[in-house]
């Protein structure tokens, strides 16, 4: 199989209003960068609007468009994983469907990749238009906190918008985990990675698909995936409380020696409540890790493809893809366990 020079991979969830313009702008940018030798891989992540219909229609008119319909909403990071798994290009551009990240930067990103001999050019947000103060503040805090507690140098203020070489992508695809924080996983892979500053635009249409609940889960995936610092937190608090209880013992001893009355209820309640809260918090934190361990241990495929439109050339090595003939291509993990290796 001859690989196209470039794959542009786009996860889409309820983006019907963006798709046509997105397709036009990506096509123009890809054409300007590599001529005819590219593919656009759109992943429909179980959209509830007409996104899949629009994708099918676009793919009929454009042989370079590959549209992939997942069996349900698997979430942004898994939808993107599916696209990366099924694309076949020598270079891979990851971009969001809402045109917050301008596809026209492709030419400059390729130039940066070439001139600096990099395997990954990651786009760093200088400005974020049209996003709430809350989102900007929490994002700024989160990336800085993550940077402090992890050993993997994950670049600050960076999304998934990036250009990668095939070897960096293959290295990324060798990571089998379910809880995927893709920007961190790509950083973990290594090779030469260089920043590319840009201004983030407003969404073209629709609204953010990341409500607070999803944002928190995403943040927890990032923290548990890249740091065990929260687990050490329990021993630090334990040490602190040991010190505090030594002081308390001293206080009681002195009171007893000098015959002073020591007030009971308030101090007792305080100790009970503080200890209870700390223990619950620590338990919850251990639970976050334990739950993820449990999910990982099931070794389920990362995504299921229901339908495709257009020529899919990559292999579903991390998920299942139901072929048109009704056959299934089985992930290597499953094959290994079936043959007892
Ligand atoms: N997305 C997805 N599945 C989801 C949620 C989001 O494929 O469950 C896609 C979405 O269509 C977009 C990208 O992920 O292309 C980023 O989402 P969004 O723009 O809503 O996030 P934000 O930019 O607000 O952080
Ligand atoms: Mg967006």
TrEMBL record:
<feature type="transmembrane region" description="Helical">
    <location>
        <begin position="237"/>
        <end position="262"/>
    </location>
</feature>
<keyword id="KW-0328">Glycosyltransferase</keyword>
<dbReference type="InterPro" id="IPR029044">
    <property type="entry name" value="Nucleotide-diphossugar_trans"/>
</dbReference>
<comment type="similarity">
    <text>Belongs to the glycosyltransferase 2 family. GtrB subfamily.</text>
</comment>
<protein>
    <submittedName>
        <fullName>Glycosyltransferase</fullName>
    </submittedName>
</protein>
<keyword id="KW-0812">Transmembrane</keyword>
<dbReference type="InterPro" id="IPR050256">
    <property type="entry name" value="Glycosyltransferase_2"/>
</dbReference>
<keyword id="KW-1133">Transmembrane helix</keyword>
<dbReference type="InterPro" id="IPR001173">
    <property type="entry name" value="Glyco_trans_2-like"/>
</dbReference>
<feature type="transmembrane region" description="Helical">
    <location>
        <begin position="268"/>
        <end position="290"/>
    </location>
</feature>
<dbReference type="Pfam" id="PF00535">
    <property type="entry name" value="Glycos_transf_2"/>
</dbReference>
<keyword id="KW-0808">Transferase</keyword>
<dbReference type="GO" id="GO:0016757">
    <property type="term" value="F:glycosyltransferase activity"/>
</dbReference>
<feature type="domain" description="Glycosyltransferase 2-like">
    <location>
        <begin position="7"/>
        <end position="170"/>
    </location>
</feature>
<keyword id="KW-0472">Membrane</keyword>
<keyword id="KW-1003">Cell membrane</keyword>
<dbReference type="GO" id="GO:0005886">
    <property type="term" value="C:plasma membrane"/>
</dbReference>
